[in-house]
Structure formats: structure tokens, C-alpha cells
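Exercise 7. Given the encoded structure of a 149-residue chain, write a plausible sequence.
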């Protein structure tokens, strides 16, 4: 009798763990288009297998192609371990592409350009020809100036 009771509790836990809600965001670095599944990497050591249908194929391949600056958010149902770790997504209800968060400690290209320009003395800036932008190739590579159009 006691063994049946334990099995019954284990079955309940197993059934409950298969259909819990899941909401994960990560990087797509591999996809199997024939089997229609991909790996969503949430951390360098943690990936989740996610199935997809034909309607999501373009989004998955875009996330794979742009994985360095794009993340994919997946919402649906998942299978969890007894410790609560998400093992795999079993049913996808929604997917969306997201830009990866920007590290605020890294300066933007505009900030870098402004810092460099601030170091150039005014006397040097005055030496830049007025038509520099119009004839950039001439001043950098020595090509003939093009007539104005």
C-alpha cells in the first residue's frame, strides 16, 4: 500500500511538471530545420530544446543568423525536472525577436567619436579643407576631384 502511494505522488509530480508555463529568453546558436527544433541558450552552460512549426521558421533562422545581437523569447509550456529546472519546451504559444541588452559600461560609437574629436586642437580642425566631404577620395587617396553635379 505504501509503495502505491509513493508512485501516485511521483506520477502527479511528473504530470504537473510537463505542462507548466515557461517563459525563456536566450540565444539561438543551432537549429535543426528538418526536425523543427532548436537550442535556446539562456546562459553559457544552460540550453533548452524548443520545437517550432513552419510559421516560426523565419523567426528562428533570423535569430540564428543574427545571434550575436538578437535574442529569442519563447513562451509556452515546458517540462521541468523535480528540482524545478526547465528541461525543454513542449508547446510553443508565442515567440518574439528581441535585441540583446546593451552593456551600459561600453561607450557608444558616437561617444567614442566625440571623445576623439575633443582631443583634436582647433588649429588642426581649421586645416581641414571646406570641400573635404565632397572630395574625400581625393584627400585620402589622391584621386582626381570629381566635378560638382
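Solution.
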Amino acid at each position: 500500500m505504501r509503495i502505491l502511494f509513493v508512485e501516485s505522488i511521483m506520477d502527479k509530480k511528473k504530470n504537473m511538471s510537463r505542462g507548466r508555463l515557461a517563459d525563456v529568453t536566450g540565444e539561438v546558436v543551432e537549429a535543426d530545420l528538418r526536425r523543427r527544433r532548436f537550442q535556446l541558450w539562456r546562459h553559457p552552460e544552460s540550453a533548452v530544446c524548443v520545437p517550432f512549426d513552419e510559421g516560426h521558421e523565419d523567426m528562428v533562422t533570423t535569430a540564428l543568423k543574427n545571434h550575436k545581437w538578437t535574442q529569442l523569447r519563447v513562451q509556452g509550456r515546458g517540462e521541468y525536472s523535480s528540482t524545478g529546472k526547465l528541461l525543454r519546451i513542449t508547446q510553443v504559444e508565442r515567440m518574439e525577436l528581441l535585441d540583446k541588452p546593451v552593456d551600459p559600461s561600453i561607450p557608444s560609437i558616437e561617444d567614442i567619436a566625440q571623445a576623439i574629436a575633443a582631443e583634436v586642437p582647433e588649429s588642426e580642425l581649421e586645416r581641414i579643407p571646406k570641400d573635404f566631404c565632397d572630395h574625400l577620395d581625393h584627400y585620402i587617396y589622391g584621386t582626381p576631384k570629381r566635378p560638382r553635379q
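Remark. The chain has a mean pLDDT of 85. Students should compare their own answers with the one above.
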